[in-house]
Amino acid sequence: MKDNNFIYLDNAATTKVSETVVALFAESEKNSFANASSIHRLGVLNAKEVDKAKESILNSFKLKNHRVILTSGASEANNLAIKGYCLNYSNRGKHIITTNIEHPSVLECFYQLRDKFGFDVEILDVNSKGIIEPSILEKAMRKDTILVSVMAINNEIGSVNPIKEIAEIVHKYPKANLHVDTTQAIGKINLDYSSIDMFVVSAHKIHGVKGSGALIAKSNLSFMPLISGGGQEDGLRSGTTSIAMAKCLSLAIKDALKEDVNKVKELRNHLVDELERIDEIEMNSSNECSPYIVNFSLKSKKASVVVEDLSNKGIFVSSVSACNSKKESYSYVVKALGKNEKLYKNTIRVSFSKDNTIEEVDTFVNNLKQTLEAIR
Ligand code: PMP
User: Fold this and answer.
1) pLDDT of 254
2) 79 lines ligand 1 (CB under 6 A)
């Protein structure tokens, strides 16, 4: 889309790539095109560039005992973390735990491990704010639990899980490791990444390039590779390495971790103040949620009609999340909060980036009110 006359409030689906990342991508593709696995001088130089990018990623997260495995994004990284880990360590135990509001790239891995590989899968319910209570996890842990997977920030409602407490519980069990889907969390909350055994990054959620991401895992963990071949990425993910993607991911992470969250908090608070005055609306995101994501339901109108009408006016928000919208016509996340059918079938998500403004929030609210009036 070339027309710049629109308001983009769908940043949890994807963000606009930053100018500096695009410039680095172009420069790197032009000048560092040789295959990083080649043994000639250009190949060796490029392999060093990739190593440098990975070093810088680990430094950004203040990590010494982790390694970076480059992937096509968070879906692939979650798949490698969950399936690659479980298939590699199934001799230690087959009990694995996750929650009922994880992203499909996590939940589907659990279902596959249960249905095709005989794992004992336990899916814990979150509370009415979309948070997993540590005591519930504590009760579910067993001696043969090998994996716990809990997302840091939910992509639909923005609920924030207590990862520090969760890590402490998991690490009381010697066979268990913690995987955290941090896709929506990078730069948005403070996390002690060193306490997490495996976490993921998706570049396009942090103004990076689409089709790029990473699994960042403790160096002592092994995985059954999901993509076999020439043995790139320590044999864990074969396929020719993109030097440009590695460098751009490192830059996007550095920038994301420097972001000023307070600016987005102001946008969020202003939006929520306005939305709470509209009778038709019921909030799904609580005050403890990430300021980047505001989710609400319509009590009597169809969310898809409202989202389409706003889209016709050049304002882009989402009803059920983009990765889910083709499969289901309701939000399983909002359903998990205990909301009724009318509400979980009519959710709208507004998601911010650092580039949004108060004026955009006001324009959105005014147009939303008009749309709700018009479809009365
Ligand atoms: N996990 C979460 C929480 C997400 O929001 C997304 C993207 N919607 C993913 C995983 C998948 O990310 P990617 O598009 O990089 O595969």
Assistant:
1) 98
2) no
Residue 361 in this model has a pLDDT that exceeds 60: yes
pLDDT of residue 115: 98
Q: Which residues contact 348 (CB under 8 A, 6 or more apart)?
A: 295, 296, 297, 298, 303, 306, 307, 317, 318, 319
- Please state whether 254 falls in left (phi above 0), alpha (psi between -120 and 50) or beta: alpha
Distance CA 98, CA 156 (A): 17
Judged on CB neighbours under 10 Å (0-12, 13-18, 19+), 144 is middle
Atom of ligand 1 nearest to the CA of 78: 10
What is the C-alpha separation between 220 and 294, in angstroms, rounded? 38
**Choice from 184, 324, 326 to test ligand 1 binding pocket (greatest atom count within 8 A of CB):** 184
Q: Do 121 and 110 form a contact (C-beta atoms < 8 A)? A: yes
234: alpha, beta or left? (left if phi > 0; alpha if psi -120 to 50): left
Please say whether the dihedral angle defined by the alpha carbons of residues 97, 99, 104 and 105, taken in this order, is positive or negative. negative
CA-to-CA distance for 245 and 336, rounded, in angstroms?
36
State the DSSP H helix or E strand holding residue 272, giving kind and residue range, or none if neither.
Answer: helix 261-275
CB 155 near ligand 1, within 6 Å: yes
Whether the CB of 318 sits within 6 Å of ligand 1: no
Mutate to test the pocket of ligand 1, among 109, 180, 323, 327 (most ligand atoms within 8 A of CB): 323
Given the CA of residue 76, which atom of ligand 1 is nearest to it?
Answer: 16
The first and second tokens of residue 118, run together, are: 């005989």
Q: Contact at 8 Å (CB) between 330 and 320?
A: yes
Cα separation, 67 vs 103, whole angstroms:
23
Q: Which pTM does this prediction carry?
A: 0.96
Length of the chain: 376
pLDDT digits (tens, 9 = 90+) for 180-197: 999 999 999 999 999 999
Tell whether ligand 1 has an atom less than 6 A from the beta carbon of residue 323: yes
With 90 as the cut, is the pLDDT of residue 324 above it? Answer: no
pLDDT at 127 over 90: yes
